[in-house]
From TrEMBL:
Gene3D superfamilies named in the record: Hotdog Thioesterase (3.10.129.10)
Cited Pfam families: 4HBT_2
CDD domains per the UniProt record, alphabetical: 4HBT
The species this protein was found in: Flavobacterium hibernum
Listed PANTHER family: 4-HYDROXYBENZOYL-COA THIOESTERASE FAMILY MEMBER, LONG-CHAIN ACYL-COA THIOESTERASE FADM
Molecular function as annotated in GO: fatty acyl-CoA hydrolase activity
Superkingdom of origin: Bacteria
Name recorded for this polypeptide: Thioesterase
Origin organism lineage: Bacteria, Pseudomonadati, Bacteroidota, Flavobacteriia, Flavobacteriales
Length: 145
């Protein structure tokens, strides 16, 4: 699998005053897709809550290349671009692509796992998180940290 792919539909509320997709909607779609993928891989919100850990982001950045409009047919491609061997730190990229594969935007997030009880980075990384991220497709330029 080259990436997790999801077709997304824009809502009226996702538009800005110029009638294209507002900047913050991109981040919302990326966050939703990450959670859906983790759920699919067995790393559900219930599991994270029960085991007392969850993802924490250090950086979230979007590079906008082509404007998106309400009627555009867009596919969100998600994969890892960097990761430590123990999955304690990672980077995930989301590519917003048109039906013709035109790259419209790229979100990059850098994150780790946080112990929600201690409010510190989880150490060691929970086994289920290692398993889930090991299944994640990797970008062509993937870097092991």
């Amino acid at each position: 699998m080259a990436s997790f792919i999801k077709e997304i539909s824009f809502r009226w509320s996702d538009l800005d005053p110029n009638f294209h997709v507002r900047h913050s909607a991109y981040y919302d779609f990326g966050a939703q897709h990450r959670i859906e993928i983790l759920e699919e891989l067995g790393l559900t919100l219930r599991v994270m809550q029960t085991q007392g850990f969850g993802p924490v982001l250090f950086r979230e950045e979007c590079v906008f290349r082509k404007e998106l409009k309400l009627s555009d047919k867009i596919f969100l491609h998600t994969k890892t671009s960097k990761m430590k061997a123990d999955a304690s730190r990672w980077s995930i990229i989301h590519e917003f692509r048109r039906e013709d594969d035109t790259l419209c935007a790229v979100i990059t997030v850098d994150g780790a796992w946080m112990d929600t009880k201690l409010r510190k980075l989880a150490s060691p990384t929970p086994e289920i998180a290692i398993e889930a991220l090991s299944i994640f497709p990797k970008s062509d330029d993937f870097i092991g940290l």
